[in-house]
Every structure is written in C-alpha cells, then in structure tokens.
Amino acid sequence: MPEETVAGEQTLEERVKEVLERIRPYLQRDGGDLEFIELTEDNIVRVKLQGACAGCPMSQLTLSRGVEAALKEEIPEIDSVENVRD
Questions:
Q1: Residues 37 and 49: beta-carbon distance below 8 Å
Q2: What does R_g of the chain's alpha carbons equal in angstroms?
Q3: pLDDT tens digit string along 2-61?
C-alpha cells in the first residue's frame, strides 16, 4: 500500500533510502556495500549486504550497531533492520 505524502514531504521509504545512501560510503571504504530491498508494513527495513560485508563475520554487528542504529537515530519509526540472504 503506497504511503500518502503531503506535497514536499518524503515517504518513510524515501527517508530510509536517503539515510542508507549516507551510510554506504562507510561500507564501501572497507570493500562492502548494501542494497535496499524493502520496507515492510511493520517498519522493518530489509537490506542485502554485498561485497566484503556479505561474508564478513562482523556483518551482524555492522548491521545492528551501524546501519540499524543510524536509521533508528534519524527515523525512530523503524523497528529493525534485517539482512536478506540469497
């Protein structure tokens, strides 16, 4: 179901994507990346870790303390962030 917006306001999904775009350079610096997959109706952000992040033993820590923390700080409505695996 598409989100309704008032002219000039961003949807929740647009806000999430904007924050993720600001996080990506930090992951890319270490050979990793992430791809936005979806924002669920219950405000769970699903991403796919890529590159060095995909196989890194610290990827869950990066996801929870890095990506999720940054999203929740700027968008308190976000419940959690999940990594989607192939």
A1: no
A2: 13
A3: 555 555 689 999 999 999 999 999 999 999 999 999 999 999 999 999 999 988 889 999
On whether residue 3 sits in a domain, the answer given is: no
Residue type at position 2: P
CATH number of the domain encompassing residue 60: 3.30.300.130
Evaluate whether residue 60 is within a structural domain. Answer: yes
- Which residues are registered as beta bridge partners of 46? 38, 82
1 vs 9: which has the higher pLDDT: 9
Quick check: is 6 in a domain? no
Q: Which residues pair with 1 in a beta bridge?
A: none
Which residue pairs from 3-9 have beta carbons closer than 8 angstroms and sit at least 24 positions apart in sequence? none
